[in-house]
Write a structure and sequence with these properties.
alpha/beta; about 475 residues
């Protein structure tokens, strides 16, 4: 399990008895938080009393590969100059918890000893100033640490910190390059690694074709059995389905061998494959592996990171594409689909496996999952490269049932309303430069994206909230 360092600030001015109580109180707080935070272990650290101790603990946090973040809290006053060198060396996300050990003031017995011990209102403001002066992007959570509202925000921070830790080591494979002449899916891969940790590299499709050619009949039979268990196979062309099974098996081997967490392809560069990968990609996406079509590495990586962030929550998270509209005035809807690659995490009911001609790509008819989409509140998140910086665009959407059946559209279909209304929502998205690819989630919220943007120092535009 990943760790989060819990660091309490004080100083030598108050004497040994006060410092002993500070340690006891902060250890009790950590024990309570560990009951309420399930995704990471909160690890108590010795009370920081001076500059040397502050620098030491924050350097240790930065160097500890299992440490994903730091929580700081000033139990007493803690002169902020002593934090400067340590904060300058800190390389992990920071949550400043502005709380105190006691919920209520002991009005009848409060004295100066109590005041000196319990002065977070004093110490946290001093500490907060130096964080702001140093330009540190952090989350500040204020309130009694046992309150549900505070715990909810701490847990959100943990989710985002886990996702950032995952992002830092994410490897992305591009089978082929960016789709020819397409602008919004392209980007600065060097800056992506500097900013988010994404190591993005090109791989020839031949690397995958070799693995496809080496798939055994036993492996195909096992994969086909898993398809029959999860899906309704509604085709007589089982050879096409078996071809996708081979692609999925080969993809799984490639991803494991190269330690890849996200990948892209483009139908302009699939030499050696009989079909465009459809069912294979859909199934791999359902396991949280990021995907972006047309060489869209940013959406691929963002999907993997947001899937990691959403782990353990109720809802679905995956890549989707803006495709076509129903523009009945006042009831405008968007059909979000793709040629093939829509994750079954969005399926309302049991998907069917079907084989149909595609009309693009010049390949044999590919097997794919067909289904109607789930309903519920959600967000659509796009990342674009503005040349000077990356921008996140996060829109408020509502996934809805399709008004009528689409018997001649044999792909996965997800429909939503653009909020607050079609015109303002779509126009704002276009003004912001949002792509036609996005990561859609019914598990994550605006607040999750806002925190990720803040902690990664990424510009973000919100639409429809």
């Amino acid at each position: 399990m990943k760790k989060i360092y819990f660091i309490t600030g004080s100083q030598d001015l108050y004497g040994d008895e006060t410092l002993k109580q500070v340690a006891v109180d902060s250890q009790e707080m950590v024990a309570f938080l560990n009951e309420k935070v399930k995704k990471a272990e909160i690890v108590w650290q010795n009370t920081v009393r001076n500059s040397e101790e502050a620098e030491d603990v924050l350097l240790r946090a930065s160097a500890d590969k299992d440490c994903i973040a730091v929580i700081t809290w000033m139990h007493t006053f803690s002169p902020a100059k002593m934090w400067i060198k340590g904060l300058q060396r800190l390389m992990k996300p920071l949550l400043h918890l502005h709380t105190q050990f006691n919920r209520e003031l002991p009005y009848k017995t409060i004295d100066m000893d109590f005041m000196n011990l319990n002065q977070s209102a004093h110490g946290d403001r001093e500490y907060g100033f130096i964080c702001t002066r140093l330009g540190i992007q952090r989350e500040v959570v204020a309130g009694y640490y046992k309150n549900e509202s505070v715990l909810k925000r701490i847990n959100r921070f943990v989710d985002v910190a886990i996702a950032m830790d995952f992002s830092h080591s994410l490897r992305v494979a591009m089978f082929g390059n960016n789709m020819r002449d397409v602008a919004v899916t392209d980007g600065d891969r060097v800056e992506s690694e500097i900013r988010f940790g994404w190591n993005v590299n090109y791989y020839g499709i031949g690397d995958l074709v070799e693995l496809v050619d080496g798939v055994t009949q036993k492996e195909v039979d096992e994969k086909m059995a898993s398809y029959a268990e999860k899906y309704e196979i509604r085709t007589d062309n089982l050879d096409a389905v078996k071809e996708q099974a081979k692609y999925e098996i080969a993809l799984e081997k490639f991803l494991a061998k190269e330690r890849i967490g996200a990948f892209t392809d483009t139908f302009q560069d699939l030499h050696g494959l009989k079909q465009l990968p459809g069912l294979a990609v859909q199934n791999v996406m359902a396991n949280g592996v990021g995907f972006g079509p047309e060489g869209d590495y940013k959406t691929s990586a963002l999907m993997a990171v947001l899937c990691k962030m959403a782990e353990g929550r109720t809802g679905a998270t995956a890549f989707l594409e803006d495709y076509t509209y129903d523009l009945c005035e006042g009831e405008e809807l968007e059909l979000a689909s793709h040629m093939l690659e829509v994750s079954p995490v969005f399926a309302d009911g049991k998907p069917t496996v079907e084989v149909h001609p595609l009309g693009i790509g010049g390949k044999e008819p590919p097997a794919r999952l067909v289904f109607d989409g789930i309903v519920g509140k959600g967000i659509a998140v796009s990342m674009v490269d503005m040349g000077t910086h990356f921008r996140l665009i996060c829109a408020n959407i509502e996934l809805v049932k399709q008004p009528e059946a689409m018997p001649k559209l044999p792909v996965a279909r997800v429909m939503w309303k653009i909020l607050p209304d079609f015109a303002s929502g779509a126009e704002s998205w276009i003004y912001a430069g949002g792509a036609h690819h996005a990561v859609v989630s019914t598990a994550l919220t605006k607040e999750d994206i806002a925190l990720f943007a803040k902690l990664t120092d990424t510009e973000v535009v919100f639409i429809g909230f």
